[in-house]
Amino acid sequence: MIRKAFEAALALLLSAPVALAGAAESDYPTTARVDYVIGCMAANGQSREAMSRCACSVDTLASVLPYDRYVAAETILSMRQGVGQGASIFRNVPMYEDVIADLRRAQAEAEVRCFK
């Protein structure tokens, strides 16, 4: 039953219409951007330079990856960290691997643009 609920919720996330690349930049809510920058700064230093690079990173991510796809990937990654049946349904599923690969490509692009 838990498995079906997770699968249904994720299917809804993944089936949402993909935003156009130009519109994607503006569809990340401010809270999501701030959360990303805070986490990025925790990993890269609490300096003004780190803040600028992290802000650049989330802007790049938003320009490459629609927000609904970002949420889906983050949800999958978060669920994989758990234990038991609920977490196991998020491992080794090709559809989920594709979503995570999209996030990884967007993160690589942000790394190149903002941290090199």
Largest sheet: none
Q: Classify the helix fraction into a percent range.
A: over 70%
Number of domains: 1
Query: How many alpha or pi helices?
Result: 7
Number of beta-strand segments: 0
Low-confidence stretches: 15-25
Describe this structure in words.
The chain has one domain. By secondary structure, the protein is an all-alpha fold. Residues 15-25 have low confidence and may be disordered. The chain is built from seven helices and no strands. It is globular and about 45 Å long. Helix content is 78%, strand content 0%.
What is the fold's blueprint, element by element?
Blueprint: H1 2-15, H2 21-24, H3 30-44, H4 48-64, H5 67-80, H6 85-88, H7 94-115
